[in-house]
Amino acid sequence: TVGHKVCITRDKEVASVVIAATPNQIVVRAYRGILANDTQLDREVAVKRLSLDDAPEARRLALKEARVVARLTHPNIAQLHDVVELDGVIHLVMEYIEGSTLASVLGRATMSESQVCDIGGQIADALAFAHAHGVVHCDVKPSNVMLTRGGIAKLLDFGICKVLHADPMDS
Predict the structure, then answer these.
(1) Is the dihedral of CA 156, 66, 130, 77 positive or negative?
(2) How much is the pTM?
(3) Taking burial as the number of CB atoms within 10 A of a residue's CB, which of 27, 72, 107, 148 is the most buried?
(4) Residues 119, 111: contact at Cβ < 8 Å?
(5) What is the pLDDT of residues 76-121, one digit of tens each?
């Protein structure tokens, strides 16, 4: 059962009753996702679509990513709010991060030494937290880091992470 209603406009198609299109809503690309509105909580969210082409294995990996991200609550890791499965597609309803990817920022301007140290420290904090919970990201790169307008770095995309051991907080 899904806890939230999320409205998404995608080529003016209705995705489902739970995820529904509205003709006058404007869709903007978020980080490899779709900007949507959580109508129940009245907030913007990013929706990451994970198609299940190789059904059993892809579904297992998509749900693994969702479970991993759901237990990693840290200020420098993008938060997962919900998981919705519709017509063979898993949608991860995530925190919407207003800003740019680190890759985009690096493509536009040179960063100062202090900016590099600050952002690097934030990413290191997120990775240390994940590692302490038995998770290795495995795909750290500038396109998997969002920078908020306030300068906060948020690590994204745990899709190919490795889970090393059970989370000590689960025992």
Answers:
(1) positive
(2) 0.74
(3) 72
(4) yes
(5) 999 988 888 777 778 888 888 888 899 999 999 899 999 999 999 9
Reported for 151-154, long-range contacts at CB under 8 A and 24+ positions apart, including other chains, are: 151/118, 151/119, 152/75, 152/76, 152/122, 153/76, 153/102, 153/119, 153/122, 153/123, 153/126, 154/76, 154/77, 154/78, 154/95, 154/97, 154/126
Positions annotated as catalytic residues are 139
CA distances (Å), origin 42, targets 7, 71, 124, 170: 11, 24, 32, 31
Q: What is the pLDDT of residues 145-159, one digit of tens each?
A: 999 999 999 999 887
Where does 11-134 show beta strands of DSSP type E?
19-20, 29-30, 33-38, 43-51, 80-86, 89-95, 99-101
